[in-house]
Design goal:
Length: 260
């Protein structure tokens, strides 16, 4: 696991956008794993900027999102499919048909989850998965207690996550209780995991994920089991890491040829 602490939002966004741009230059039909939440927004903005000046094309790429609310009316602006179309996919040359999201309107949820898993496999698996982290350590919508081997399924949000996400809704009561989410086992199958976190509110979750025991108590700690993980933090999110000086030294001495 590589832990990178950078003060400037533009630097963090450029670093992750570089990894995605490099991936697409190497394989135009790359499979991207998209995350919602505020953490990846600067990366999307940077990718849109690069797309607009012709530095990157998503025309042959495919994208899979991590999760989706259940029970929102079709087309609700806070449905994660709508958010991703509004913030990223609709702003670049990635067609809506190439954006896959778990079906939050499904009547047969078990079947919809199995179909989502099958679609990821049929696409050849995710090359690079963007991730945020919940203040309770959740990854996608895998709340504490999630099986580290879990696959796409329905989950119930914790009160804390519903409160955290209430800022996107008119009223806290509007935040759904249930979601569909890729499992931790599903996420582990992506070839490169890139987790972004900023702010002091994430510091404890980041500490547990990066330096704590691997445990379903902190679902993001499952990242420690993956061979290629990049964690990109601002100083506030890194503020509780015991080995932060070491991570900074590794970054300072990183060979120029080595990407993330
Ligand atoms: C949401 C999403 C996660 C996201 C997390 C953090 O609940 N399901 O995928 O990583 O919350 O969100 P934010 O980046 O806005 O802090």
């Amino acid at each position: 696991m590589e832990v990178i602490v950078l003060g400037a939002e533009s630097e963090r966004a450029a670093l992750v956008a570089d990894a995605i741009t490099d991936l697409l230059w190497g394989a135009t039909d790359a499979v991207l794993g998209l995350a919602t939440g505020s953490s990846p927004s600067p990366v999307y903005a940077e990718l849109v900027r690069r797309h607009d000046v012709g530095q990157v094309s998503f025309a042959r790429a495919t994208a899979f999102s991590l999760d989706e609310y259940l029970g929102l009316p079709p087309g609700h602006p806070e449905g994660y499919r709508q958010v991703l179309e509004r913030e990223f996919v609709g702003l670049v040359d990635l067609s809506a048909e190439r954006l896959h999201t778990p079906d939050g309107q499904a009547t047969d949820i078990v079947e919809a989850c199995a179909a989502y898993e099958a679609a990821i496999v049929a696409a050849g698996g995710v090359d690079l998965q963007l991730l945020g982290i919940g203040s309770d350590g959740h990854l996608a919508f895998n709340e504490p207690g999630s099986s580290l081997a879990s696959r796409t399924r329905v989950k119930t949000l914790t009160p804390r996550t519903r409160a955290d996400n209430a800022r996107f809704f008119d009223s806290p009561d509007e935040v759904p209780h249930h979601v569909l989410t890729q499992g931790l086992g599903t996420i582990l199958q992506a070839r490169h995991l890139v987790m972004l976190a900023t702010g002091a509110g994430k510091a404890e979750a980041v500490r547990q994920a990066v330096e704590g025991p691997v445990s379903a108590r902190c679902p993001a700690s499952v990242l420690q089991l993956h061979p290629h993980v990049t964690v990109v933090l601002d100083p506030a999110a890194a503020s509780r890491l015991e080995l932060v000086d070491y991570y900074l030294a590794v970054w300072a001495d990183k060979p120029a040829w080595q990407g993330i």
